[in-house]
Write a structure and sequence with these properties.
Elements lengths: L4 E4 L25 E6 L7 E6 L4 E7 L2 E6 L4 E6 L4 E5 L4 E5 L6 E6 L8 E2 L2 H10 L1
Antiparallel strand pairs: 1-7, 2-9, 3-8, 3-10, 4-7, 4-9, 5-6, 5-8
The chain binds dTDP-4-keto-6-deoxyglucose.
Length: about 130
């Protein structure tokens, strides 16, 4: 089964322009407690490089594009996010890396919980150990 779980959002646009709606426990499969945006990213950098113990998130490229790698400790898969009508569901216990941000990229992330540094696993070997024990 692929690690890359995509959600397609309905385009509610008309001849005035485009509109996409995100609703907790409807087209987003959890209660949305937090939203954040990554933008004005420095060329060539890699972000992420961590997993979360419990947090679930959906990442949506509102503008531009970036590449996402998801890794479950055994398999590693990559995709490009490049449209507001498509979201990537990032379940807990998945290592993520984001790279190749276009200059104009605005990446919005909807999260199932508030920011909590103790939920992060920032060491890949520790992550491998935790998923290996599950
Ligand atoms: C993730 C990927 C996709 C906060 O204070 N509140 C927040 O809600 C967030 C997300 C971050 N921060 C602080 C923590 C750091 O001092 O903002 C700084 C940058 O965060 P970080 O280095 O974790 O950013 P990324 O892009 O590596 O990772 C982020 C999320 O943190 C993470 O949960 O899954 O995007």
């Amino acid at each position: 089964m692929s690690l890359l779980k995509l959600i397609n959002f309905k385009n509610l646009g008309d001849d005035r322009g485009q509109l996409v709606s995100f609703e907790g426990n409807k087209n987003i499969p959890f209660d949305i407690k937090r939203a954040y945006c990554i933008h004005n990213t420095t060329t060539g950098i890699v972000r992420g490089l961590h997993a979360h113990k419990t947090l679930k998130q959906v990442a949506i490229a509102l503008k531009g594009s970036c590449k996402f790698i998801l890794d479950n400790g055994c398999d590693r898969e990559e995709l490009t996010l490049d449209m507001p009508t498509q979201g990537l569901l990032i379940d807990s216990c998945l290592w993520r890396e984001m790279h190749d941000f276009t200059e104009d990229c605005v990446l919005m992330v909807l999260a199932s919980d508030y920011y909590d540094e103790s939920d992060y696993i920032r060491d890949y070997q520790e992550f491998k150990k935790i998923v290996g024990e599950k």
